[in-house]
Hints:
InterPro entries: ADH-like_N, GroES-like_sf, NAD(P)-bd_dom_sf. The chain is 29% helix and 24% strand.
Amino acid sequence: MSDIPTHYQALVLDHIGAEMRIERRPMPQAGPGSIIVRILESSVLSYQNDIYNGKRRYPLTTPIVGGCSAVGRVAAAGHDATILLPGQLVWVDCVVRGRDDPEAIYLWSIHDGYGPGSQKLSREVWHDGTFAEFAKVPMENCIPLNEVRLCKDLGYSARELIYLSHLLVPFGGLRTIDLKAGETVVVCPSTGGFSGAGVQVALAIGARVIAMGRNETELARLKSFVTKGTPWANIETVKVTGDQAADTASLKSFGVIDAVLDLSPPAAAHSTHLPSAVAALRRGGRISVMGSVGQPIVGWHFLSHDLQLKGKLMYEREDLMLFIKMLEAGLFAKGKDLVETKCFVLGDWKEAFNAAAEYTGVGRIVSLTP
Length: 370
Ligand SMILES: NC(=O)c1ccc[n+]([C@@H]2O[C@H](COP(=O)([O-])OP(=O)(O)OC[C@H]3O[C@@H](n4cnc5c(N)ncnc54)[C@H](OP(=O)(O)O)[C@@H]3O)[C@@H](O)[C@H]2O)c1
């Protein structure tokens, strides 16, 4: 622990609706099963403001150091660490799971989860998050990153690697419906942070993408962005007109559709995009729902076409490990063709949260850089 300071700065939320403030805290010790990580970049959600101001009514116990997933370096490790040694570049994952309880799952510093196990862990054990210079992290949430391959060979820096925060989510959904190379998937909407990343992930898997959205300018940006980064990308776009049947016909004009990925925010729950896409699916088609659904999608077409519907919160650990292999294999665009990260220091959290709400869509993420 010799080069670790005795204290560190952290961004604290005293209660839902409060202004955040920077606090000087004593450095925690790494014990068995835990790692002290020096945070390099911590991702900010487009709705981080809405969670911390109470607009999104997520159950979250305060006071709390805010946070989300992060990229960092191991500063100190518990005695049971074998490869997570000081200096190792790591992905700090925000999906915390009970070690003895598969039902206990929550998103660190975002919500406490919805059961007694997750609430206990979130409130009493792994509470304070990554909007800080250092964080104490469950060992299993520190995923080693191959720095030589990712940073030297492929040219990624922590500022690009923080985009894993967006890329991993749609990967989790697409894994639940087993999207395969050569298949066609509708991503709807496709112009958000997570959904735009979903287009990049589906293309990296080798699928053809039909991207739906209501904003033609942003659809055009999406298409040109992914085509620039991966010129072999097989992507079509369909504008959501609000005429459900017409939009289904537009989708079907591109041929057989195997799968649908939905990442709708609450504001889009009543949009027609998901029912349109479901109605365009072939027999045996699969739907991954990761966002808000306010429209009926289980109707006659669903029954008569043997469709399969899967919900998904985030992703499994196995998905995370596989995804990092895909990234290390060089399946994604490099540098600014993958993402352009806007970075803010901890003290500028308000600007960061406001920027995150605006700076959305494919290849865009906001990060707090302690
Ligand atoms: N299941 C999970 O584990 C998981 C994980 C992360 C996030 N999520 C969910 O994913 C959602 C999307 O997050 P995000 O960061 O991608 O959001 P975002 O960047 O704010 O994007 C919002 C998207 O929704 C579209 N939209 C907004 N209002 C709409 C409306 N009334 N009708 C049609 N489309 C509308 C936007 O289209 P325009 O470009 O036209 O504005 C944009 O494509 C979140 O709200 C969250 O609930 C789920």
